TrEMBL record:
Source species, domain of life: Eukaryota
GO molecular function, one term: S-adenosylmethionine-dependent methyltransferase activity
Pfam family, one: Methyltransf_16
Family, as annotated: Belongs to the class I-like SAM-binding methyltransferase superfamily. RKM5 family.
Organism of derivation: Candida tenuis (strain ATCC 10573 / BCRC 21748 / CBS 615 / JCM 9827 / NBRC 10315 / NRRL Y-1498 / VKM Y-70) (Yeast)
Lineage: Eukaryota, Fungi, Dikarya, Ascomycota, Saccharomycotina
KW S-adenosyl-L-methionine (keyword) present: yes
Keywords of the record: Methyltransferase, S-adenosyl-L-methionine, Transferase
Gene Ontology BP annotations: methylation
InterPro entries documented for this protein: Methyltransf_16, SAM-dependent_MTases_sf
GO cellular component: cytosol; protein-containing complex
Protein name: Ribosomal lysine N-methyltransferase 5
């Protein structure tokens, strides 16, 4: 079974290993003077190429909205997304690559932001791909999906983790009632300790025992990361991490990629 084959290549994290896991991460993978992770914070229109996949992307972001009061970090592109999808499709070491070898995957992305990088790149390799985020980000998200994946029908729904019932209703309207995705994807969503319980409740609501969640994190604050790992293993989830030797060169320092499933025991 594909899911078991993928999980066998990951390293499980038990509750008693949380502190050691985080300590080892910051001892072995942290980068001095690491930037915050913007792709480019100098202009609203940016173009770049994914080096492993050789895929060109053109993104419209909003620096003015990022700076406005009550705004969202999702108004600009973050490099975690581009590095993750480039690794998934372009690096044979990636344990999750087989998921996209045939376009049979039902994918939900949480916290897609305006860039739509994951949807634009992975959507064409999926049976169904739904991007979700807060309402104020969706207009620009649609623009970027149409720009970079014009031949792919990618769903866009409002799903705010703090207002989960309405978000789930929106998701089920876009798919079908009770739909559970094969894969949940989240890039750089773990940066605010306050949001972690809401994020995990969203996972708990959409995942079945056959669902795998991929969470890619840029290593900034160790306290926030430890809170995420600790709270995840305290819930009815099994948590795994991708070994450093299986990550791309871009992800092997300053980043960590997790796999999450419902508890198999």
């Amino acid at each position: 079974m594909l899911i078991q084959s993928i999980l066998s290549r990951l390293e499980p994290i038990s509750p008693c290993q949380v502190s050691d896991h985080v300590f080892e991460l910051y001892s072995e993978r942290s980068v001095q003077n690491q930037d915050l992770g913007y792709v480019d914070r100098t202009q609203n229109h940016i173009s770049f190429t994914l080096p492993l996949c050789d895929i060109d992307l053109t993104i419209t972001q909003s620096l003015s909205q990022l700076s406005s009061s009550g705004s969202s970090t999702g108004f600009v592109c973050w490099s975690t997304s581009s590095k993750l999808v480039d690794w998934i499709l372009g690096d044979k070491r990636c344990p999750f690559g087989p998921y996209f070898s045939s376009a049979q995957l039902d994918v939900l992305e949480l916290g897609a932001g305006v860039g739509g990088i994951c949807g634009s790149v992975l959507g064409p390799h999926s049976k169904r791909y739904v991007c979700s985020d807060q309402k104020l980000l969706l207009k620009l998200l649609r623009v970027n999906l149409e720009q970079n994946a014009p031949q792919t029908d990618i769903g866009v729904v409002e799903l705010d983790w703090e207002y989960l019932p309405q978000g789930l209703e929106n998701y089920y309207t876009a798919t079908e009632p009770g739909n559970t995705p094969d894969l949940v994807l989240a890039c750089d969503t773990i940066y605010n300790e306050y949001l972690i319980p809401f994020f995990l409740r969203a996972l708990d609501s959409v995942m079945s025992h056959q669902t795998v969640c991929i969470v890619a994190v840029q290593m900034r604050d160790d306290i926030t990361l430890e809170a995420f790992v600790s709270q995840t293993v305290e819930m009815e989830f099994d948590l795994y991490t991708v070994r450093q030797e299986d990550l791309s060169d871009q992800l092997s320092r300053g980043y960590v990629v997790y796999g999450i499933t419902r508890s198999q025991s």
